[in-house]
Every structure is written in structure tokens, then in C-alpha cells.
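User: Here's a chain of 71 residues. Predict its fold as C-alpha cells.
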Amino acid sequence: MITKKVGIEGMNCGHCASWVEETLKKVDGVMDAQVSLEAKNALVDLDEAKVTDEMLRDAVVRAGYTVSNVS
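Assistant: Prediction complete.
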């Protein structure tokens, strides 16, 4: 398991952060996701054999937001 940091643009309330967190947690291979509205990012614990950066980007975009970076 590794942790990735996903920069997220466009969130402006707690509901936004909760929605992104819920969407990320639905990705197969994601064990946990913690979204910070203040830091504008998510820390995602994942199985690197199952989850790609592109899958994380797609989940955030599906939730209605923009990814600034994945590291």
C-alpha cells in the first residue's frame, strides 16, 4: 500500500470535500481517502497494483472537480 496526494481545484465547501472523498473511496483498490478542503488535496491510501494516477484523476473529474497534480 502507498499513499498518493491528489491536488484538487474547485471545492468550496464541506459537502464538496465529502463528495470527492466518497467518489475516491469507490475506486477499486483504494483503501482510504481523506480530503482536505483547506489544503485543496486528498491523501489516498491505495494498492498500487490496482490503482493508477489516471484512475484517481477520472474519479475526481466524475465528482465534478479538477486535478492539479498527483504525487
